Amino acid sequence: MTEQPATLIAELDARSREVFRKLVESYLESGDPVGSRTLTRQLTEQVSAATIRNVMQDLEYLGLLQSPHVSAGRIPTQQGLRLFVDSLLEVSDLAGDDREMIDQTLGTNHTDAATLLDRVGSALSGITQGASLVLTPKSEAPVRHIEFVSLAPDRSLVVLVFADGRVENRVFTPPPGQTPSSMREAANFINAVAEGRTLTDLGRTIADEIAKRRQELDTLAQTLVEQGIAVWENEGEQTERLLVRGRANLLAENAGDIDLVRSLFDDLERKRDIAEFLELTQEGEGVRIFIGSENKLFSLSGSSLVVSPYMNADRKIIGAVGVIGPTRLNYGRIVPIVDYTAQLVGKLLSDRT
Q1: Does residue 120 contact residue 345 with C-beta atoms inside 8 Å?
Q2: pLDDT category of residue 328 using cuts at 50, 70 and 90
């Protein structure tokens, strides 16, 4: 079945919709398959268990429910959870206790940004009893100097010296046939426009300058400059950090799939998809929910991700916060927690600038 949620929900009559909603809510609460007798006690109208079983069979035919093993009960499929989240989920207001705990953890503005974001991860993990993810902002310190160093015919080093004294060395593959003179020419070109600009600004500036002054660079030097830009903008390892807290919570929830969950955390530790993690949030403001294989970062473990971007004072997305948990997360509670935390983090970081 590949129908969209809006199409599927329109196919359900009032009874089927209520049976489906009650079944998913019961599953999210208990994690256990839900049988017809359980639902007879929850529905607003008096219907027999046999009638409910017929409805459940129809929902299973639509691809919204499945029967695990030999159980008489049903659980929602990934498609069913997607339909529930998009069409039937009732998001509660942020609970007073949750708000108070977040405020207490993040309310002090006396710590540095790194400590604050580490606290964010710990707070989200503790409050939700899941694993938390915090993608910290890229460094925006101005660049003071750049230098290219040849290491081998197929390997070169770009040395970045920032105004705050930080130095980063990054290895990249230079264009074939590069020479010491072409590398010096490229470095001189970049340094002429680099000072005082951040890497983000520098990438845009150099792209503009290359367009204006292509005739002043020979082909090798031009390609080298472009290679350098690619290194700076795509090297998530050096410019972004992904903080993971509370992994034991997720391991406990998925005791039967320990190897799959460990695989998830191995991927996170290697930061294989950090840049993509931030890109998940780029399609507009607000909280987004990814269930199971909808996001390749978590497809192996079958986990869900509730994530929201946070922004600086210029309303630019600079990072993200999220919670990973089993697909039977209490989405109605987790969504306002992630949303509030993201807004608070954005405000606290903006107040520092």
Answers
A1: yes
A2: confident
Amino acid type, 103? D
Q: Quick one: 11 and 82 in the same domain?
A: yes
Instruction: Tell me: do 328 and 188 sit in the same domain.
Output: no
Q: Compare 306 and 210 and report the one with higher pLDDT.
A: 306
In this structure, what are the phi and psi dihedrals at residue 22, rounded to the nearest 5 degrees?
-65, -40
Same domain for 265 and 348, yes or no, is: yes
pLDDT tens sequence across 251-260: 777 666 677 6
How far apart (Å, rounded) are the C-alpha atoms in residues 156 and 175?
A: 10
pLDDT confidence of residue 340: 93
Tell me the per-residue pLDDT of 237-273, one tens digit each, with 9 for 90 and over. 444 567 778 777 777 776 666 776 777 776 666 555 5
Task: Verify that 34 and 73 share a domain, yes or no.
Answer: yes
> Between the CA atoms of 68, 60, 40 and 27, what dihedral angle is there, to the nearest 10 degrees?
50
- The residue among 161, 173, 169 whose CA lies nearest residue 199 is 161
CATH number of the domain enclosing 70: 1.10.10.10
Please indicate, yes or no, whether residues 83 and 18 belong to a single structural domain of this protein: yes
Quote the mean pLDDT of the chain: 77
Give residue 162's domain range. 143-238
CATH number of the domain that residue 117 is part of: 3.30.450.40
